Amino acid sequence: MLLGVLAFALAACGSHGGGANNVAAPNANGFYKIGQPYQIDGKWYYPAVNWSYEETGVASWYGPDFDGKYTANGERYDMNALTAAHRTLPMPSIVEVTNLDNGRSIQLRVNDRGPYARDRILDVSRRAAQLLGFANAGTTHVRVQLLQQPTLQAELLAQRNGGPEVEPPTQLAAAEPVATVNAQALAPPAGAVQPSSAADASSAPPRPAPRAATSHLALVTPAEAATTKTQAVVTAAKSRMYIQAGAFSSRANAETLKAKLTQFGTVNIDTAQVHGANVYRVRIGPIATPSEADRLLGDVVKSVPQARLAFDW
User: Fold this and answer.
1) How far apart are CA 101 and CA 306, in angstroms?
2) Are the beta carbons of 165 and 33 closer than 8 angstroms?
3) Which CATH code for domain 239-312?
4) Rounded to whole angstroms, how far apart are CA atoms 62 and 79?
5) Domain spans of the chain?
6) Does domain 15-159 have CATH number 2.40.40.10?
7) What tens digit of pLDDT does each residue of 103-134 get?
């Protein structure tokens, strides 16, 4: 049992790059950092600002081995905080992460780099994995969306700390100029009768009573909330996971690769249109769970290094 627990911990946490050698930031806001292109295990990553970022894939979590060490932007990693590691998003960024297997969704602060194993797209803290409901499984199928306004606020605070490297500041839209407006009362025209204040008050239509402040969440009944969550889970169930080993313009090449992969399970050749031409995709699956897909991808890349996860909706 002990060996099994150890193996699980390594599988959950072993894909993280970490930032233990970075310079410490002066406070919890960290440094603002985008970073230069970098290479890990022969693969290049290109950090950049991308406000339209949204991605679906497999997420993992990391915990005790990194707790208390510096993250890639100079913050102290706290495995009980709501943070995450991403390979290319600026730091700090605020993302919304939805577990597509159960419909749970939370917002996380990206302050570290990783993960780099098996095509995973996000490493979250242990606490985030607990709240998203996959701490025991180790991995799950998620959608990650960048939130622009919360990210801008976090970046502005971090930029005040400077940093060990010079980063271009986030460009904010300039505010429209505000013009000064002069107003003055005009005398009534000749012959006009000005009503008294009492008569004016009595003739005015009654004002509606102010509405009580309510949360938009209070407008959703428990039954509606249950229906909404169920719909989210049903939508998630429609997505199917595959290992895509290659894509070819030649059907013969696709057939050759298919024959090489039969040891890994059901292999299909799908035809897709790309710029008006047929592309033959060699895929293993569909695969039932993210943990199974994560394990299978680790085996397939030993034979086909360019293999990756793919999703159909």
Assistant:
1) 26
2) yes
3) 3.30.70.1070
4) 7
5) 15-159, 239-312
6) yes
7) 999 999 999 999 998 889 999 999 999 999 99
